[in-house]
Amino acid sequence: QVQVVESGGGLVQPGGSLRLSCVASGIDFGSTAMAWYRQAPGKEREMVAAITSVGKTFYEDFVGGRFTISRDDAKKTVNLQMNRLNFEDTAVYYCNVAKELAYITDWGQGTQVTVSS
């Protein structure tokens, strides 16, 4: 089963940037598509971005070109560079394997991102 440790969250003003990182273990990382998800207060958890084992990337529409997902297979790490953050980006961000949420049972603690002026 996958084990992940997310980091990099924090408090940022609107328009600011953050870089999230996630170290994964317990899986064949280099062969596994990975994703970032988030859960805002009072809302369902949702996917933010995904990256395949060969580096193809996918983003949800609300990202609007502001975020970049990347991976380092040697370090078993997946990153999320977030720019032009807005209030609606406030959430706990999680990384995990890229698949339908209903099939993910093991989650890390996530990292809190708060956008506030």
SSE topology sketch:
Blueprint: E1 3-7, E2 10-12, E3 18-25, E4 34-39, E5 46-51, E6 57-59, E7 67-72, E8 77-82, E9 91-97, E10 111-115
Parallel strand pairs: 2-10
Antiparallel strand pairs: 1-3, 3-8, 4-5, 4-9, 5-6, 7-8, 9-10
What does this protein structure show overall?
The chain has 117 residues and is mainly beta. Helix content is 0%, strand content 47%. A six-stranded mixed beta sheet has the order 2-10-9-4-5-6, with no helix packed on it. A four-stranded antiparallel beta sheet has the order 1-3-8-7, with no helix packed on it. Strand 4 and strand 5 form a beta hairpin. The N and C termini lie far apart (39 Å). The model has no long low-confidence stretch (mean pLDDT 97).
Shape: globular
Summed up, the helix count is: 0
Mean pLDDT: 97
Helix-strand pattern: EEEEEEEEEE
Structural class: mainly beta
Largest sheet: number of strands, sense, barrel closure: 6 strands, mixed
- How are strands sequenced across the largest beta sheet? 2-10-9-4-5-6
Structure characteristics:
single chain, mainly beta, 6-stranded mixed β-sheet, 4-stranded antiparallel β-sheet
Please provide a brief summary of the model.
The chain has 117 residues and is mainly β. Helix content is 0%, strand content 47%.
